Amino acid sequence: MADLPHVIDVTTDTFESAVLQQSLQTPVLVDFWATWCGPCKSLTPILEKLAAEYGGAFVLAKVDVDQQQQIAAAFQIRSVPTVFLLVGGQPVDAFQGALPEGQLRQFLQQHGIEPLAAAEQAPDEAAPLDPHAEVVRLRREVEAAPDNDGLKLDLALALLKIGGTAEATQLLDALPANLSTDDRAVRARARLGFAALLKDAPPVPVLEQAIAANPDDLKARHLLAVHHLVGGDAATGLEQLLEMLRRDRAYEDGLPKKALIDAFRVVEDEDLVGQYRRRMASLLF
């Protein structure tokens, strides 16, 4: 195994110190796997990726059930992959099977495990990723592991950030059912829907002039909001959609409300989404 941050291989001799003692200080995710296990080959790279991304918020301890049968027996492992979460020296939760990345993040979040703040991580970990370089990196990883659908979803999301909507659509359409309903896939679909609206849309200055001339031009407001959402200015986009709702909630068969709900799926800032959900509710109820 490559030298990965916060990822360790565990044996019977090291289990006490590397897992039980370690879990007194930091949560430990114990991944029971086997070389012959197909789902393990899908799950393990995602777990390793999260362990690195979370920067020490948890430790990933890998146990080969064929080589470490005593540990597997102690945990009554019946199938692989099986993953246990240990906190304070005790198992607190577990799951079986290869969960998609979105569900793994939810599993960690349910137990209060969040990525460490950028200030607590090494400078290179805290540096923002170049979106084009990320696409190149993910293309290589997909070529090396063509059966890893989780990597394909990662690539689709990266492509959307650089405008590669056609290829992203193909990747999303080819995802298996368990990943097509992943939170990130749903968000990507919503983003694609917004991008499609801009195919023949006027540029931002033209839309702003139309609204200045007629504040009730809700078609222009809708397109202007989408421009801002796709361009990364979520607050301005949400503000325009909220203004649509305030002016005419019944416009185009309830489009203002539908567009806001779609926007909530796209925007990753949970605090901002919460703020606008409350403002939407105050207008509706």
Question: In words, what does this structure look like?
Answer:
With 285 residues, the protein is of the alpha/beta class. It is 59% helix and 10% strand. It has 15 helices and five strands. A five-stranded mixed sheet has the order 1-3-2-4-5, sandwiched between helices. Helix 12 (218-231) packs antiparallel against helix 13 (234-247) and helix 13 (234-247) packs parallel to helix 15 (270-284). The radius of gyration is 23 Å and the shape is elongated. The N and C termini lie far apart (56 Å). The relative contact order is 0.07. Residues 118-127 have low confidence and may be disordered.
Instruction: Summarize the amount of helix as a percent range.
Output: 55-70%
- The share of residues in extended strands comes to 5-15%
Number of strands: 5
Span between N and C termini? Answer: 56 Å
What does the largest sheet look like?
5 strands, mixed
Main features:
single chain, 5 strands, elongated, five-stranded mixed sheet, 285 residues
What secondary-structure arrangement, pairings included, does this model have?
Layout: E1 7-9, H1 15-21, E2 28-33, H2 38-53, E3 59-64, H3 69-74, E4 82-87, E5 90-96, H4 101-110, H5 123-126, H6 131-144, H7 149-161, H8 165-173, H9 177-180, H10 183-197, H11 204-213, H12 218-231, H13 234-247, H14 251-266, H15 270-284
Parallel strand pairs: 1-3, 2-3
Antiparallel strand pairs: 2-4, 4-5
Helix pairs in contact: 6-7, 7-8, 7-10, 10-12, 10-14, 11-12, 12-13, 13-14, 13-15
Brief sketch in words of this structure:
Helix 2 links the parallel strand 2 (28-33) and strand 3 (59-64). The chain has 15 helices and 5 strands.
